[in-house]
Amino acid sequence: MSQSEQPDSSIAEVTSDTLLARTEYLKISLLAILAGGVAAYGALAFRYILDSVQNLTFGFFHEQVYSGVSQLPGWHILLATTLGGLFLGSILYRFLSNSAPQGAVDVLRAVKTSGGKLSLRNGAGSAMVSAASVGIGGSTGVYSPIVHLGACLGSSLARQFGLTRTQTITLLGCGVASAIASTFNAPIAGVIFAHEVMLGHYALASFAPITLASVVGTAIIRFHLTDLFPFPVEDIEINHILEYPLFALMGVLSAGLAIVFMKSVLFSNQQAKKLEWPIWVRTTLGGFVLGVLAMKFPQILGMGNESIQKAIDNEFVLWLFFALIPIKIFATSFSLGMGYGGGIFGPALFLGAMLGAASGNCFDELLPEVVSSVEVYVLVGMGGVVSCVMGSPITTILIVFEMTSSQSLTTAVMISVVIANLISTRLFTRSFFLRQLELMGINPDEGREVQILKSLKVRRLVCPWYNFVSEDDTLEEVENQMRSDTERRGQSKDPPPLKFSPSNDRRKFEGTSEQRKLNNQDAYVLDEEKRIKGKIHMSDLLLAKQGKGTNAFTAQSIAHPPSLILHADMNMLEAMDLLADFVGISIPVVDDPENGKMLGILYAGTVFEAYNRALLQAREEERGHR
After folding, report:
1. Pick from 437, 396, 436, 429: nearest CA to 414
2. pLDDT band for position 62 (50/70/90)?
3. What is the per-residue pLDDT across 432-449, written as a single tens digit (0 to 9) for each?
4. For the whole model, what pTM was predicted?
5. Which residues contact 324 (CB under 8 A, 6 or more apart)?
6. What is the dihedral of CA 387, 392, 395, 399, to 10 degrees?
7. Where would I find the beta strands (DSSP E) of 291-438?
8. Which of 433, 424, 383, 350 is CA-nearest to residue 189?
9. pLDDT of residue 14
10. Where do the DSSP E strands lie in 404-549?
């Protein structure tokens, strides 16, 4: 090819890459719109199931659970919640493969550990159990299961279209954003929540698709529903500058309440794990206890949206605001511990509202000329508690702004949220979900390059060419093999095509010519089943030859155990940790640590190459190039 033709060739390659990139971007954008629509209709289906179960249990469809239950006799309440618990445990749990409803923390775990892969079956089953749990009066929330359902739908779409790890996580985020946007009628908050809480980053490549999904979800929910705001509020203004120190105090109180609430739920879950009762016994007992409490305090049943609105309108007496806080904490913790599905977002809103109403009334008694209205403190309390529990300060602020369009009220919430999160992070953790991840043994602060390395198995980088000999081979046969220029093939086929490498060049993972030359100084002793029995270095062979004749010893007699053996299902991060003190060129890899059947070798240089490429991929994701 002449030099004059080379620029044209380069231009053609650049054009081809640009067209491919645009095609992929168009593909993920169209799938984002689809994911947003599917997640929004999933949220609508969730509401329909909840309303249907509630109508079957208590006899009404509407969300005014407190008013509706208050009209029922005590025996009806107790019988409904108890039989509802029995139904939940004996029937609905059959829809779950792992016998435990999942939620937002499982979305986070999938993002951290499995590249965003979630089971649609578990997502649908968890949604049904959670909707039924709230419908029979469970003192839990609906937002976490709706988020989980949206994430599962997005992840399932990605799997159907064979998307990459990064694209799968993006489509998962699309489902999350649509779920939040369609629940709160807050498209901006949906976008920020998906990035702030679930993805943990604001990569350019995912921002546009997630925005599309959030807008689609909002449009669908507005088309189907007229009552869009869960807690409608009137125009609110802050009248006195001296209220801002009170908002700061609300931040301190909110942090304390959030910490108590989160610790109570964790304690209840830990104690429940020690019980060996059948699930139907636990849910039935949970329903009975909830029924007893609801006979006196029906406000704790279900999502509690009507009670939150009562707090906003300041329609309860002061002692009831205070009393409902510990009762709701117990009811939610006990419900979740006994196996009810649902989340803690809704209960956190409830607790924040009661705290805000109680504090606002007290402030109004002490400083009547300063306090604008109790309604302000209810919203400030809700924002402070929820932001600590969810670890979403920015999302919380945006939800308040989108719901009220009041800059002064949003400023008040900002003060409470910032102070509450500073205290909660220092004394407990950044969110309830991150603490759950820590209890699972997952580090929530690890970078994306670590997640990439965890998703890459050693099996994918194994080189199938290496020297091996039989146990009864003579030293002469061992020497002939080790001095041969041709390595022997240890397995019948190559590993699956490697998607981790941008160039997909396997030669870089099968060792350079210098590495392979040095590695020829080693041979592995294998039995008939290809199990490792030892390793022979050239120096071992030379020492044996100096002591005896070349036929005096067999291969097994001069072999020594390998200093390190990896198994194929290890991830590359685990391999890197084990290689910290390793000295050598390559490490043997076995199919299973128990049977020790050898698959091949892993070059030490390959591990470092994998780490470098993980760093490169993480940086490209941040810049929106992937």
Report:
1. 396
2. confident
3. 988 888 888 777 777 777
4. 0.78
5. 297, 299, 300, 307, 316, 350, 354
6. -20
7. none
8. 383
9. 47
10. 465-466, 468-470, 488-489, 522-526, 532-537
